[in-house]
Amino acid sequence: MGAWGRLALIQAAGESKEILERIAQQWGYQKRPEKKLELDEKTRFNHNNRTKEASTPVDQERKTQATQVILPPTHFVCVKRRYIKPQNHEQPKALQGPTLPLSDKAGTYSFNPPTPLLPKARLLPFLQNALGTLQAGKRIDASKLCRQSAQGRTLRKIPHVTQRRWPQRLQIIVSPSLDNEPHWQDFASIVSSFKALLGSTAVASLRLCEEAFYKNQYRYQQWPVPDKSTQSLNLAWRDWKLPHPEVAILLLSDLGMSKVLAQENQNNHETLAWKRFSRLLSRHSGLVLTLSPARMSPQDLIQCKILKPTPLNDYHLLPRHPKVTGFILDKTKAIEYFLAALSYLPVCDVGLLRALRVGLHLGGSELETWVWNHPHIERMALGCQVHTRHRKHYQTLYQRYFQGTPLGQRIWQILQEHHSKAYEGLRNLERLLQYEAEPPRSEDEKSQQADVLDYFQQLAATCAQQTFPDLKSAVKTQCQTIEQLLPDSIWQGQHSELAYQLFAMAHQETLRQQQWPDALPEHFDPARVKWVLDPTVESQLYGLLQNDSTGNCVLAPFQANLKKPANWIAMLSSIGTAPITLQPLNQPSDQTKNNTNGSFSSAHTVKENECFTIPIQQIMRLSSMHEEVDLQALQRPAWASSMGRDEKGLYALLLWRQEILKIPWQIIKTDQQGVEHWSWNWPKPFGEDAYGLYVDWQIKTLTQRFRWIEPGSFMMGSPEAEKGRYSNENQHSVTLSQGFWLADTAVSQALWQAVMENNPSRFKNPDNPVEQVSWHDAQAFLTKLNALDKSVEASLPSEAQWEYGCRAGSTTPFHFGRELNLQLAHYSGDWENYNIEGSTCPIKQFPPNVWGLYQMHGNVWEWCNDWYSHSYQEPVDPTGPKEPDLLEKDKYQGEACRVLRGGSWCYAGRYLRSASRLRDRPGYRDGGVGFRVALGQATSLGGGAGNRERQPLAEQRQADPASKTTLLQKIKNIFKGES
């Protein structure tokens, strides 16, 4: 009976609506939207969604829609395995090894500046044309003089040759944004060139206050500062106003376009600020020019006419005169190559950025600004690096584009030359990352890698053994820098022990104070640094609780003296405030790679009372210092009427023989390593094996195993191209909305003898299937079988159920594939011909299908419950025609026929196909005809001699007040915690 049917009993017993909703939520059910029926609609549905009458095609369509199954998204988190880690509080012996000689070695973090972007001979002529004025010189223009004389014009003054001269005064305004930092040295070079050319008094170089600039307030200070002794004077902020009209203005800025390329937003606050500033400059009657290092300029024509943006670029030629339409340089794919080249570098300063671009021939200088402002780049005090969130992606690209190539070797050669005077620690870190990107091949490279690892081992040992506070602080700072820049792969690689030692030395004092870094590496295991912690610190107990029926959990502090709550899942212990991490052990293909709804696709540190979700089909490991718990979201099994959780743990309810069985999720066994194996703790006669759920029904002295067949959809019939196909196998989609139990074998002669006390079979053998039985004989057998146990509803399977169980998820002609032979099934041995020289074989002689059903192909034909019809009918829960089709009468005997499936020992191989259909009279008997039993059917058997009309099981329970009261009391007892 459906879950809403049981809840309806509770409501009918007088329970309130609030209790009904609470019970529905506890069991994980959601209310189905009500369907409004028209007044003239003839179709009526009971609570099992089965049609009592459907007289028109419209009614048939409504029935199809109404019988669709809506499974609630209920899933409960369960424990799959639980590990207890071994305790280890001993310091690694390597930290007692040799230390570094702490002598002052030459080294610096001040790297070489970028090489000049443009030579003066290329830049100054353009600047003179753009900023200069035409003035008459001392040299006479002879050609113009001759032309005027030849034309007979009066010579009023002698013409002189005009020349483009530099402006008398020039104001250079440098961009207030840090986005142009890779080109600050180029800006400074332009300023120094003008001061050398025009004199320092004629050139004013300044930068605007960035914070005030975006607030439409303009304050400036001198830039660059020429002398440290006058720094306090030169850095005083002053109000900026438009200069005299004779003063030319040169802007060195990207005009906010670097953020446009990074954020793809044309209206960010930088570009809006530059629009306001351009309106102010429009009132300046003097010359204005902009040199921009960005890939493009603003596309506002009015703004471009005022500012005259021109690319400051070493790849594209400067125009002869500035344009007023702006510019857009060619878009290149080199940005991806550039980021891949930087992916293994610990730090890339602006000088190295240019050296790599030029040395690898990646493109123009606009790439430097583009990379510097890229959203996947993280800026630091010394330069920039690829952000940790994106580093793995670009390292994969590095391996594709550069690994093992001359370009890859060139990257590290440029790096070594540029940082040749850097501190030894930085150079060793770069070597370590180099061998991570380019695995050493020669013996010389392997020796150098060993020296680098030895250096870091000595660095960790020095930090562990150093006693002088100043020296220890300096060494610890270096350990922190190294640890932050280590590659992610090292935490799981062969050098992981060294990485954990450096981490321990970098955070030794804070770890002993139970303070952990806010962000830990992706594959970091806190248990491997537990030797740093104080062993006297008491362990903190945490309880993992489930909030609702959609997999949402929370980790909360737990007190051992309190009673376990009903939503209890597991308990973990950790040293003090040591972090507890949650990381996936598998990644399903349809799992999104983002961090939404509290689900995590990578390692994550779980905080107290933080809510997170265990996704379906994904195993998550919750790890503390002492323990590891593998968690999985267990969706409600198809065999379960509902799921829940009480103080004893997770359970599912199964309806069997009018009884509600409570199946707990418990530890089945614990192996020698202490690993706990969890599963459903099935009471006898139930069990679960590689084929799925089963029940062993004791019938007198014999046991018949029934397999649980879950509801689902499949393509019934055969495709037109299938070999051996007949015309009555029209392929169509069928949905079985309810699961059922199906005997794993055909009825044996031993079972028939135990029930009927006779054996009509031709080929006598207790282990062989019973044959020589008609459809009526099978009904007589079922009548006696149900009389032995009135709580079980035994019947023949419907034709759709039989083919669904036979296919077992396959789409081929046979459940084992497309080919047939005598080692796979019992038949005539020929594809087209019969062979009556033989007999049946034991019912378990051949291997079962993946659902545990034996000999669905061959041995004996098996009766189905349906009346035969040439065409299939219902797409949802089909049971065949309700009445015999007079057009389908047997042409010899004039009787309507029942369906036979599976083929037999004497039939041709084509009849053994999953879609093959045979028909015969209900009274027909043959040495190749038998049947198998299904349980849990709630359908009427239809007409026919010797057949009793059966009422659906759900209707029987509704009609029986005693059964209704008993069932209601059992449901209430379950929610009270009683079994």
Q: Number of helix segments? A: 26
Unreliably modeled segments: 1-14, 32-72, 589-597, 937-968, 974-979
Shape: elongated
| Number of E-type strands | 36
| Structural class label | alpha+beta
What is the strand arrangement across the widest sheet?
Answer: 7-6-5-4-8-9-10
Q: How far apart are the termini?
A: 20 Å
Radius of gyration based on Cα positions: 42 Å
Main β-sheet, in a few words? 7 strands, mixed
Q: Tell me the strand percentage band.
A: 15-25%
Helical proportion? 25-40%
Average of per-residue pLDDT values = 81
Describe the structure in your own words.
This protein has 26 helices and 36 strands. It has a seven-stranded mixed sheet with strand order 7-6-5-4-8-9-10. Helix 17 packs across helix 18 (443-465) and helix 19 packs across helix 20. It is elongated, with a radius of gyration of 42 Å.
Secondary-structure map:
Blueprint: H1 3-12, H2 17-27, H3 57-66, E1 75-84, H4 120-131, E2 133-140, H5 142-150, E3 160-165, E4 170-174, H6 184-198, E5 203-208, H7 210-213, E6 219-222, H8 231-234, E7 238-239, E8 248-252, H9 257-263, H10 269-281, E9 288-292, H11 301-307, E10 309-311, H12 334-342, H13 350-359, H14 366-372, E11 377-379, E12 384-386, H15 388-401, H16 406-418, H17 424-437, H18 443-465, H19 469-484, H20 496-506, H21 508-512, E13 539-546, E14 552-557, E15 568-575, E16 580-584, E17 604-606, E18 611-613, E19 619-623, E20 627-635, E21 642-646, E22 649-656, E23 659-670, E24 676-680, E25 686-689, E26 692-699, E27 702-709, E28 712-716, E29 732-736, E30 740-743, H22 749-756, H23 775-788, E31 794-795, H24 799-807, E32 861-867, E33 898-901, E34 918-920, E35 929-930, E36 934-935, H25 953-959, H26 961-975
Parallel strand pairs: 4-5, 4-8, 8-9, 9-10, 32-35
Antiparallel strand pairs: 1-20, 2-3, 5-6, 6-7, 11-12, 13-14, 13-15, 14-18, 16-17, 16-19, 19-20, 21-22, 22-23, 23-24, 25-26, 26-27, 27-30, 28-29, 30-36, 31-36, 32-33, 33-34
